[in-house]
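User: Thanks for the earlier help. One more: Transcriptional repressor. Can you show the sequence and predicted structure together?

Assistant: Of course, both are below.
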Amino acid sequence: MPHADTANAARIFLTRTGIEPTLNRILVYSAMADSDQPLTAREILDKVLADHHINRVTVYRILDLLADSGAVNRIASVDGASRFCSRGGRWPAGHSHFHCTRCGEVRCVDNATLHLDETELGNALSMRVDNVDLRLDGICASCAEAARSDQAEKQPGQ
Ligand SMILES: [Zn+2]
Ligand SMILES: [Zn+2]
């Protein structure tokens, strides 16, 4: 079982999103709400399986329901595996995502680091901006590190 506070927060969030908070839905949602980073369906299944018996199809079906109702983000990645992150746990509803074009890693990014003024943006566009979810593409820290050591091996003595 997730921590009692996490389970309780999940129950409240799911209810508010219009989803009946069954035990399995709470378990699947909590696996994401707890996580710093988006997880693949496989990773979510493994997290839930650590404490509970649940079948794979049930997890996949719940992920579809949560994504379709806007409780979680479903993020397509270059490696072909969708990743999921919560919109009401560790990360707020509005946040952005960094995609590594080398390894396919996807990371959640706090919009505060993007220095965006949503009110100013809305005024400039004459639109009301309720949510900002930008896609950032680039090379993640570990791929950049790997590229640096490859470089170092090719140029010994430098
Ligand atoms: Zn990478
Ligand atoms: Zn995210």
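User: Great, one quick takeaway?

Assistant: The pocket of zinc ion (ligand 1) is lined by residues 100, 102-103, 105, 140, 142-143 (CB under 6 Å).
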